[in-house]
Specification:
heterodimer, A: mainly beta, 6-stranded mixed β-sheet, 4-stranded antiparallel β-sheet, about 0% helix, B: mainly beta, 7-stranded mixed β-sheet, 11 strands, about 45% strand
Chain lengths: ~120, ~110
């Protein structure tokens, strides 16, 4: 079984400040971890992934995420937030051993609001 | 441009009616998925397909049906048995290797008349 928790429904930050969106996961095998962003009435867009290797992963639009195996976390970060980063963010996990169509489990999402 | 096209963007269903949501991809992806998104509940998997002429039920398949007659197409039918169909429906596809991310369409919003 695999699961994802995004403990914060909402994160508010001021423009120019660093942001963090939290994600913890549970999976039996090695985790494949993904972050996606969703704007209103649109589909999800892929931001970044962790499969193996360096624990700090860099992705699109200046976002990065840190994989922490001991804490089973994969928090999304950005050094300086923009108003245009305001959106709904989803963390997803897939078991690296899973051959069953690579089903992913998504968190419930975190709404990020960046205020000018 | 390669991508996933979902149509229509908005759809209204009358009671007792079946409706079909279209999903077409030109990414040459093997796997395709249908998700339902309700406010505050994230994405829930309805059906998925790894190859043509094969598909499996996801977590909430009751009241839905799919077909996969072509690699590019994975239509979803919301049947009259689905008593609470109002939601945002998302189609996704993925290249065969399961360390790859999913690519999503822009969704269909289904409402009850």
């Amino acid at each position: 079984a695999q699961s994802v928790a995004q403990p914060e429904d909402q994160v508010n930050v001021a423009e120019g400040n660093p942001l963090t969106v939290k994600c913890t996961y549970s999976v039996s095998g090695n985790p494949y971890l993904f972050w996606y962003v969703q704007y209103p009435n649109r589909g999800l867009q892929f931001l970044l992934k962790y499969i193996t290797g360096d624990n700090l992963v860099k992705g699109s639009y200046g976002f990065e995420a840190e994989f922490n195996k001991s804490q089973t976390s994969f928090h999304l970060k950005k050094p300086s937030a923009l108003v245009s980063d305001s959106a709904l963010y989803f963390c997803a996990v897939r078991d690296g051993r899973d051959t069953n169509a690579g089903k992913s489990t998504f968190g419930d999402g975190t709404t990020l609001t960046v205020k000018p | 441009d390669g991508g996933i096209t979902q149509s229509p963007k908005y759809l209204f269903r009358k009671e007792g009616q079946n409706v079909t949501l279209s999903c077409e991809q030109n990414l040459n992806h093997d796997a395709m998925y249908w998700y339902r998104q309700d406010p505050g509940q994230g994405l829930r998997l309805i059906y998925y397909s790894q190859i043509v002429n094969d598909f499996q039920k996801g977590d909430i398949a009751e009241g839905y049906s799919v077909s996969r007659e072509k690699k590019e197409s994975f239509p979803l039918t919301v049947t009259s048995a689905q008593k609470n169909p109002t939601a945002f429906y998302l189609c996704a596809s993925r290249l065969g290797f399961h360390n790859q991310p999913q690519h999503f369409g822009d969704g269909t919003r289904l409402s009850i008349l």
